Task: structure prediction
Amino acid sequence: MCRKRVHVHPVAVAAAAVAVATAPHAEAGAIIPLDQSRSVNTFLIVPQCLGKTSDTDAAQGFDPFNSSVETTLDCDSGFGYGAASQQSQIGASSMTASGTGISMAGGPVQNVIHAFGYSDFVVTFELPLASTFSLGGLISAAAPDGGFETFAGASISLRDSAQMAIFAHFVNPGPGGKPNTQVVEETGLLQPGVYTLWVEAGSFIDNDAPPFRSGEASFDFAFQVLVVGDIDGDGDVDIVDLLLLLSDWGVCQVPPDGCPADFDGDGTVGILDLLTLLAHWG
Result:
């Protein structure tokens, strides 16, 4: 962080104290969850076995969700297999999840087998205050025995209230169905409003077997928000953040670790940044 000794006029300090005393209080870093769909699903149809089956489990409310489902249809003439899992949690200022979707099909008798494994994490939430966000994780897909005749894919996106993508990432298997992994790293500023974090991974077989076919996809991520003004990252906008801002007052030289007190990104830590911090005091 850039550091510069400054002289702050007493009138400015007094004005800041008044603003602090009258600034509206809001819970720092709050993610307010509004709606969610977190589930794991499997579905199978194996004509040779004269049957179909499925299994599903879904999160109830916003409590931590830790679940897996597994379904098999097997007979002398063919088999199908589907599996899905998810571990996810929604916190006060963060959301984390990992999930998988797997499908397999095969048998000695030629026929079309349907096998499905799918895990989804869809959470709509409100941010009452302008916040910076960071997301880091991995999405991957592979279909080593099915190639492009077996679908496997994973995606992660953040959408605004109009369902316009703030960012979106997709991954499918590489050439010949080889495993393909994409590193996802996103940061930015979110204004107060409603957003949806949409993540999914699944594998689908809807094709002839034999040959043996298989596919799998997965996601693993952590999403975090930080209220604008929380320079030290402790979840509160308080006197420590004010002192850090004042110590950076003036032109920021943008050192390697950035200049976190420059909230408006104009290269200067000044009165607009001070007013932003005071507006989020609490």
Summary: The mean pLDDT is 85.
